[in-house]
Specification:
about 475 residues, alpha+beta, Outer membrane efflux proteins (OEP), 10 helices, 6 strands
């Protein structure tokens, strides 16, 4: 008969025993001879530590690192801080400011202007003169020259070019504003997701602490029954293995707190070593208030992606108008005046001119450039219109899927809480049967594992639902806040 499997089990059990049991007990178990099943250990065995009780309201989970306590942020405060500090938001704000100035520049095409100009020089001049002897000789003089002129110009009409440029600039402003809103909304969703990740990690750590205390109680119970001769040594080893796994689960959960906080700090654009805490928001309603059709309509009306696509359509429409004007007959009209208050030439001082000016231009032959420009602008416009329709379809689908995810998230909370309650009751029954001597340690550890997973699932469902509600707000194009839709 092959005994390797038994040897492997014994080796793993001894390793778990050394990890989970206090040092004195582990050494005694390793050095002493194996006891027969049902035989209590000798009286000199090291006593087991008293099991820790499970508190009704567990304290705040211990962190894997001992950083000082930082400011406590609500979800709304975290979003506001991220928007104020994120460089992408600042860059988008500057783009909006630049687009606003571009509108002013475009309007100047038909606005009056007043210019002051001056010119001057200093140099030699030579003329031929007849001297007293009757000879012609050159006369060289060094004289300054200069003039000051004030020019006023008021364009009246330029075949619609200025109107097209203004329309294009206004569309660019709408695009920049939509990009800013999208940047803020995307950042808000990132903050909300990271925020709930931190809360979930902290809650799971609290759950793991309670499960560790529960495993300690189970080990103490197994040790007591083994000493009383009503349980086998294998029951103790199984309980020790469960305790060791509970310790590992707690370490992983504590590490996840620091990991999730690092991600949260990254979204907030703050230093990784800065301590920070988050505050649990009020529990959301288990009913998603918004209807699916309303969510879809809100997405089309509010999503910045749709506004960006519509702005591009306006920009391409203005570009088509410009191409048509440039390729055809162009008429410009304007009034102007000039005044020269000073000139080195005396006849030019205090002179003024004014009048109406106009130009007429018609390209007779341009090798097809004008027609090609019009066709290109039409193609760009058609492309932008198709993209707008596609973007509307995408946001509608996105909003509907976000609604379904929120509804499913609410249902998952109810289901996982019921499963956790049932698993906890099954564990209570298994522990009672084991204490009465009619159950097995395997049934207890199995029930413990089921209850632990059910509790983890219940906690995860809560924050999955919170994140789904934030995603629904993002999908409908509204500002993400702690008050859910």
């Amino acid at each position: 008969m092959n005994h390797r499997p038994l040897s492997l089990v014994f080796g793993v059990g001894a390793l778990i025993l050394c990890l989970a049991v206090p040092q004195g007990t582990a050494m005694a178990a390793a050095s002493g001879p194996p006891a027969a099943q049902g035989t209590p250990p000798p009286a000199t065995s090291a006593p087991m530590p008293a099991p820790a009780s499970v508190p009704a309201s567990p304290p705040a989970p211990a962190h894997a690192t001992s950083l000082p306590t930082g400011p406590v942020l609500t979800l709304d405060q975290a979003i506001q801080q991220a928007v104020l500090q994120n460089p992408q938001v600042a860059a988008a704000q500057q783009s909006v400011a630049a687009a606003q100035e571009a509108i002013t520049i475009a309007h100047t095409g038909l606005e009056p202007s007043l210019t002051l100009s001056g010119s001057g020089g200093y140099g030699n001049s030579s003329v031929n003169v007849v001297n007293s002897a009757g000879f012609t000789v050159p006369l060289t003089t060094v004289t300054p020259t200069g003039a000051i002129t004030i020019v006023a110009d008021y364009p009246l009409y330029n075949s619609g070019l200025t109107q097209a440029e203004v329309a294009s600039a206004e569309a660019a402003l709408v695009n920049a504003q939509a990009t800013l809103r999208q940047t803020e909304q995307d950042l808000s969703l990132q903050v909300a997701t990271a925020f709930f990740n931190v809360l979930q990690a902290e809650r799971l750590t609290t759950v793991r602490q309670a499960q560790l205390a529960q495993a300690q109680q189970a080990l103490a119970q197994a040790e007591a029954q083994f000493r009383a001769g009503t349980a086998a040594r294998s029951d103790v080893i199984q309980a020790q293995a469960t305790l060791a796994q509970a310790q590992v689960n707690l370490l992983v959960a504590q590490s996840q707190i620091d990991t999730s906080k690092a991600g949260f700090k990254g979204v907030l654009a703050i230093d990784m070593l800065t301590p920070i805490e988050v505050r649990e928001p009020e529990a959301p309603s288990m009913t998603v208030a918004i209807r699916p059709d309303a969510a879809v309509q809100a997405a089309v009306a509010n999503r910045p992606e749709v506004a960006e696509a519509a702005a591009i359509v306006q920009t391409d429409q203005a570009a088509l108008e410009t191409a048509i004007i440039t390729a055809g007959l162009q008429l410009t009209l304007g009034v102007g005046a000039s005044y020269t208050p000073y000139s080195s030439g005396g006849f030019s001082t205090n002179t003024a001119t004014y009048g109406l000016t106009g130009t007429l231009s018609l390209p007779l032959y341009d090798s097809g450039k004008g027609k090609a420009s019009i066709n290109q602008a039409k193609a760009n416009l058609s492309n932008a219109q198709d993209k707008l329709a596609q973007e509307q379809l995408v946001v509608r689908q996105d909003a509907y899927q976000a609604y379904l995810a929120a509804v499913q998230g609410a249902a998952n909370i109810t289901a996982t809480q019921a499963a956790a309650t049932a698993a906890e009751e099954a564990l209570r029954v298994a522990e009672g049967q084991y204490r009465a001597g009619v159950g097995t340690i395997l049934a207890v550890t199995t029930a413990q594992a089921n209850a632990a997973q059910a509790e983890v699932n219940a906690v995860t469902a809560v924050y999955t639902y919170e994140t789904a509600l934030a995603t629904l707000q993002h999908a409908t194009g509204v500002l993400i806040t702690a008050s859910t839709p």
